[in-house]
Amino acid sequence: MQISEKVVETSVKKAIVIGGGIAGLTFARACLDMGIEVELYEKRQLDEMLSGPGGIFIQRNAMRVYKLLWEGRIYQRLYEQGGKILSGGFSSKKATLLYVNTPKFVGEEDLGVCLLRPKLQQILYETLPEDTVKTGFNFSHFEDNGENVKVYFEDGSTATGDILVGADGLYSKVRARLNGTEKQQEPLYSGMCCWRGYFNSSKVTLDERYSWMEYWGRGNRFGYFDVGGGEYSFYGFNNSEPGGNDDKVGGKLKALQLLFSDYAEPVPSIIQTLDESTIYRDDIFDREPLGVEWGRGRVTLIGDAAHPFQPNLGQGGCMGIEDAFELAKVLTFTSDDKQVPSVLRQFESQRSPRVDRVFTVSRQVGNLGQSSSVMGCFFRNWIYKLTPTWLADLQFKWLFDYQPSWDHNSYPGENLSN
Ligand SMILES: Cc1cc2nc3c(=O)[nH]c(=O)nc-3n(C[C@H](O)[C@H](O)[C@H](O)COP(=O)(O)OP(=O)(O)OC[C@H]3O[C@@H](n4cnc5c(N)ncnc54)[C@H](O)[C@@H]3O)c2cc1C
């Protein structure tokens, strides 16, 4: 479908977005495709906004969104700059294969693309006209007078739009203000921390049959994936107290070496190639689902601001991409200005079954991957090894059933709750 065919009369002429992460940038592009003016405000400076640790999976469901946006140019650039997600799976830490899938399980040539986060941010940023993203603006609060929303920033400046979209991440201040508070409650600690970074594949021998692999130990796991151009991203999870750091053991590299020393190759060799200055460590959090209502009046939320997950499915960013598309699409159903709040609530209630399911399955996969008892790990590995692949695939297949479409007859987001 050509852009001109999908631009329709809408009473939402201008959207204000808070947050220049994956969700906010994707939503801004989707608005422009729909003929809606958009201003995106980001608290960080541009170089910081375009940075980020390690790599990210943009899976097939989210890639379908990018195929539709900006006449497919984001989609094309992701393929040019990233690594395709091909076969991959889970192994024991001694490298016994437990589960492997191939893109065929969803009838595709690949399951999407992985790439380094700064590259993804840069690609998304470049889709927007120069004056769309305004950096150095720290959101403070908003006033919704029923006809428009006025947004206030910490430096006293303001912006006004027909709707306000909070895409400001895990600690979303837009969400806090919706709850009548200045700051959100602390998120829920998952019990694990994560190290992330990247390495060059020329220094390690990797099994060429797999573009990604995750090794399960007791209370920890290690994974790597192809992010294109000879680079790979890695991650390591470990059960630990919140707020920890690696000072006591002499740094992040040392911590990884100690933790994963008894894993089979290629894990120790990968760690050997790492550079301390490019390793990030974070505690991992999520929040209980909000239910069917995320916003109020002319204000809504997308991405982590609405539904932060544990990162065990590699779908947090992908769900933000889906949100961005579905929200931009429903805005074109508001020919009557009075409908705007109800259309935003419909967007939220249509999205919630799918994102709530991602939340639940993400936690389940995390609990399995982070099992720490001897018996728990034995049964986990044994069950995965004995389960037929087609049955194990069902755990993930529904994620790929999402089929975004500009078609108004599919309003508001068919297949959202498959
Ligand atoms: C270890 C790990 C691995 C992951 N792997 C994957 C993966 O492979 N695939 C995947 O899809 N997802 C993955 N995720 C999840 C993914 O990273 C997040 O879901 C995604 O980045 C969220 O994007 P967002 O745009 O909603 O929020 P963010 O990326 O958090 O962006 C929010 C933006 O808002 C800005 N902001 C915050 N407050 C304000 C304010 N007051 N005023 C103005 N601006 C503000 C911030 O500076 C930031 O730029 C992973 C997460 C982790 C922790």
UniProtKB/TrEMBL annotation:
Keyword Oxidoreductase: yes
Cofactor(s) for this UniProt protein: FAD
InterPro entries found in the cross-reference section: FAD-bd (IPR002938), FAD/NAD-bd_sf (IPR036188)
Domain of life assignment: Bacteria
A Gene Ontology molecular function term of the record: oxidoreductase activity
FAD-binding domain mapped to chain residues: 15-189, 293-359
Keywords: FAD, Flavoprotein, Oxidoreductase
Name recorded for this polypeptide: Zeaxanthin epoxidase
Organism of origin: Mastigocoleus testarum BC008
